[in-house]
Write a structure and sequence with these properties.
Blueprint: E1 8-13, H1 22-35, E2 36-44, E3 57-61, E4 66-69, H2 105-116, E5 121-124, E6 130-134, H3 152-155, H4 161-174, E7 178-187, E8 190-200, E9 211-218, H5 235-331, E10 334-338, E11 344-347, H6 378-388, E12 392-397, E13 403-412, E14 418-427, H7 429-451
């Protein structure tokens, strides 16, 4: 009921037209065309189409039902704007009609020239629907019986219909002006000679895709002369001339049809060759895809084999890691692994009895870790081992009276590359206590021997 919006970029009307009658659809599609700006897009539902308005929209994606607005000139009767339902407000007088401007002299003169001196012409769209009429065309077109139809092929008079259709399609196909001369049109039993000109329009942009059809009257041939006895030339001769003219005309039409057929055959042949070439390319592509699929399948099998091997190695490495951890824990020897920069790489359980270590300390320098060992030069000795590749061993006490044998060795990789140091801490507190007891006993025995 409301007037349409204008200059829209996009109209989405999905799954609505299928519930409307064809008559309402024919009213809506021109309104959509009017509302969209040049190049605007219409998006319909999957079960909807624009079959009745192909001159208004061009398909962008027919499968998705996306169409672009054509630069088509709408006939005034095609766009049916909805009436206004705004009630009159009390006290407000109806709008007074605007005064029609008076025509100036130039406008009146142009109208007289167009009416009397310019040939009748008709502007149609790509399907032949009449959009504009200039001059009097009653001698060439007449309304068809039945439902009103503004298609020029249905309104063409006898004698114009065949040539008009032929010239129209040829002009659209070749995009050039086509002229058909000497056409006989019967008007109220009197023949009339007409020249027909069909011109596709490319400019201005608003008329692009339209066709202008111009009708030009031609003077009729002179009537046959009468003989001296007052008798006219036999009618058979005139009829024979007329038939000969029709035969020549049909021969021209036949020749034109043959040329068009030959051109179509050449185009079809060229299209067939292109299709064959495309088919060969598709076959080649299909073979390449088959080869690629086989290669991918072979590569996939190789990857599966490599994956199985990697999984086996990972399981084996996990077992070795477990074995190594159990071995180190069973020896009750605290082990600390350092990299070349003397940063913590790994440590065994029990290291926290000597160092204040947490799992998050991996990567920190050893010198930053607090230790119970009375061995302040530990870091320097470890650095010297990395440089000289000579191991170091020393017995070191702790702050709480324990003793440890600290052994520092280079860390060698499988490729025989020095990549840090390994420090082991073996507790020797019991041995140190026994050594102290033995020393005391030895000293006591020496005193007894001297006293005896």
């Amino acid at each position: 009921m409301d007037p349409p919006f204008t200059k829209l970029d996009l109209i989405l009307c999905r799954n609505l037209l299928i519930y409307l009658t064809p008559e309402i659809q024919k009213k809506l599609l021109p309104l959509f065309h009017y509302s969209l700006k040049p190049g605007g897009v219409l998006f319909l539902g999957s079960a909807e189409s624009i079959s009745s308005s192909t001159e208004l929209f061009a398909p962008l994606n027919l499968k998705m039902r996306i169409f672009r607005r054509r630069e088509s000139l709408l006939a005034p009767d095609l766009v049916e704007f909805p009436p206004s339902f705004v009630p009159e407000q009390p006290g407000i007088t109806p709008e007074t009609p605007m005064a029609k401007p008076s025509d100036n002299l130039q406008t009146l003169a142009d109208q007289v020239l167009l009416r009397n001196f310019f040939p009748p012409a008709v502007l149609v769209n790509g399907t032949g629907d009449i959009l504009y009429i200039s001059g009097r065309i009653g001698n060439y077109l007449e309304p068809a019986a039945g439902k009103a139809n503004w298609n020029i092929f249905a309104m063409a008079r006898e004698g114009l219909r065949f040539e008009l259709g032929n010239a129209f399609h040829k002009a659209q196909r070749q995009q050039e002006v086509i002229t058909a001369k000497g056409l006989k049109v019967g008007i109220n039993g009197a023949p009339r000679i007409v020249d027909l000109t069909v011109q596709p329009l490319a400019e201005p942009v608003a008329l692009r895709g339209m066709v202008m059809i111009v009708f030009t009257d031609v003077a009729s041939p002179p009537a046959p002369k009468r003989t001296g006895r007052g008798k006219a030339v036999p009618g058979g001769t005139a009829r024979l001339l007329e038939l000969e003219q029709e035969v020549r005309h049909l021969n021209e039409v036949l020749q034109s049809t043959r040329e068009e057929m030959q051109s179509s055959q050449e185009e079809l042949k060229s299209t067939n060759e292109e299709l064959q070439s495309t088919n060969e390319e598709l076959q080649s592509t299909n073979e390449e895809l088959t080869t690629s699929r086989e290669e991918m399948q072979s590569l996939n099998e190789e990857l599966q084999t490599v994956n199985a091997e990697q999984q086996f190695k990972m399981d084996e490495l996990a077992r070795l890691n477990s074995d190594m951890r159990n071995l180190l824990n069973s020896t009750e020897i605290v082990t600390v692994f350092l990299d070349r920069e003397l940063n913590l790489r790994r440590f065994t359980s029990g290291a926290n009895r000597l160092f204040k270590l947490l799992p998050g300390d991996v990567g920190r320098p050893l010198s930053d870790i607090t230790s119970d060992l009375l061995y302040p030069e530990l870091t320097e000795v470890a650095g010297e081992v990395v440089r000289s590749l000579l191991f170091s061993e020393k017995q070191v006490p702790t702050t709480d009276g324990r003793w440890f044998s600290v052994r520092i060795m280079p860390y060698r990789t499988v490729a025989d590359v020095i990549d840090g140091v390994v420090i082991t801490f073996a507790e020797i507190t019991a041995a140190k206590k026994l050594e102290s007891i033995l020393r005391e006993e030895n000293a006591r025995f020496k005193v007894l021997l001297k006293g005896g």
